[in-house]
Amino acid sequence: METEKVRLSINKFLKLYFDNCNTLYDEIGFDRISKKQFRYLKKIMKIEDCTASKLAAATGLSKPTVTEIIKNFITLNLVQKRIDDNDRRVAYIELTELGHTLASTNELESKRIAKVVMEKLDRDTVTTLVRIFDELGE
Fold first, then answer.
1. How far apart are CA 95 and CA 97, in angstroms?
2. Do β-strands 91-95 and 79-83 pair in parallel, antiparallel, or remain unpaired?
3. CA angle centred on 54, ends 50 and 56, rounded to 5°
4. Cβ(133)–Cβ(82) under 8 Å?
5. H/E element, 132
6. Which CATH number is 94's domain given?
7. What sign does the dihedral 40-94-64-84 (CA atoms) show?
C-alpha cells in the first residue's frame, strides 16, 4: 500500500478526532484556561490531599506564585479550599465539578471518539482497529 494513501487515511481520522475534541471544548468552556493552567489543574487532580505546598513542590513554582494561581482558580470556580478538620492551619485544594471536568478532558476526548468509532464501524472492524492501535502503542 502506498504511503500517501496511509497518510490521507490517518488525516481523515485525525480530523474526525479533533473535530470531536473541539466540540467537546466548546461544550465545557475549555477556552477559559491556558495550557499552563490546564497542566496545573491536572497536577491538582493527581496530588492526594493537595495543598499549596504540595502543588509548589510538584510544579517547581514558589509558594507565592502557587497562591496566586489558586486565587485565580477560585475566581474561575475551578478549585475550592477545604480546611482540615484536625489542623485548621492546613487548607486542601480541591477541584470543583467544573475544574474536574476541565482537568479530565483527555479522558473525555477519548471516550467521545471511542463512541463515534463504535457507532460508525462494525464490531469486527473495531476489533481490528483496537489490535492495530495496540500494536502501534508497543
1. 6
2. antiparallel
3. 125
4. no
5. helix 123-136
6. 1.10.10.10
7. negative
How far apart CA 93 and CA 43 sit, in angstroms, is 11
- Between the alpha carbon of residue 87 and those of residues 38, 49, 56, 82, the distances in Å are 30, 13, 20, 11
Burial 99-137 (b: 16+ CB within 10 A, else e): bebbbbbeebbeebbeeebeeeeeeeeeeeeeeeeeeee
Establish if 118 belongs to a structural domain: no
**Residue 35: CB atoms within 10 Å:** 6
Q: Tell me if 122 sits within 8 A of 60, measured CB to CB.
A: no
Amino acid at 99: G
Question: Whole domain around residue 46: which residue ranges?
Answer: 13-109
- Look at residue 42 in the predicted model and tell me its pLDDT: 94
- Say how many domains are in the chain: 1
pLDDT digits (tens, 9 = 90+) for 59-96: 999 999 999 999 999 999 999 999 999 999 999 999 99
